[in-house]
Amino acid sequence: MDKKKSQQLIISVLLILFSCICYYLATKFVVTKTPGRLGPDFWPKMLCSLIIVFSVADIVLIYLNKDKQDSIEEVKTAEEEEVVAIDKKYPLLLIGGMVGTGVYIFLLPIIGFIVCTACYLAAIMFFGRYRNKKVIFGSSFIGSFILLMVFSKIVYISLPAGIGFFGEFTFLLYKLLGVS
Q1: What is d(CA 136, CA 142) in angstroms, rounded to the nearest whole number?
Q2: Same domain membership, residue 66 and residue 117
């Protein structure tokens, strides 16, 4: 097994162990069940279960693809090696994405979830080198509204509304969308 696969295997095993510990801790939540609503223990347990399932699947795929990967590596041509060598890296865009995440966290309570998330999604698409402005604009606002609906209607998480005009705008959208 090569170094990359062993690192992937170690990460998967650590994720399984960490998820098991977190799942155990989630079972210790003091929960008052409300009929018709999910308790605060549901989402941590769901997330831990999904991490365990996907990590186990990753381990299985590592072992199933072990023989296939060896034969694929033997077939590589000189042209494919040149293409890999030409692959560019963009460290400034990576740094821009990291700074953008910090700015997002800082501005979230001020601007509110809807506007701040739409701007953040647009910035991440830009830093990801996608340049179609119509698609960036549309998908960032659609993504922001989808996240709003998921967090407020399904997960029941209160999201930052913002201050001043942004708060009024958020509450108007909440009213129009039937979010309470």
Answers
A1: 10
A2: no
Distance CA 159, CA 176 (A): 16
pTM of the predicted model as reported, rounded to 2 decimal places: 0.60
Distance CA 110, CA 164 (A): 9
Instruction: Give the model confidence (pLDDT) of 121-161 as tens digits.
Output: 999 998 888 889 999 999 999 999 999 888 888 777 888 99
Q: Is residue 82 part of a domain?
A: no
Cα separation, 37 vs 39, in Å, equals: 6
Query: How confident is the model at residue 70, as a pLDDT?
Result: 54
Residue 157 lies in a domain: yes
Total count of domains within the chain? 2
For residue 81, tell me if it sits in a domain: no
Residues 6+ apart with CB under 8 A from 20: 48, 52
Q: Answer whether residue 85 is part of any domain.
A: no
Q: How far are the Cα atoms of 3, 45, 160 from residue 154, in angstroms, in the given order?
A: 41, 15, 17
> What is the chain's percent helix, strand, coil content, to nearest 5?
75, 0, 25
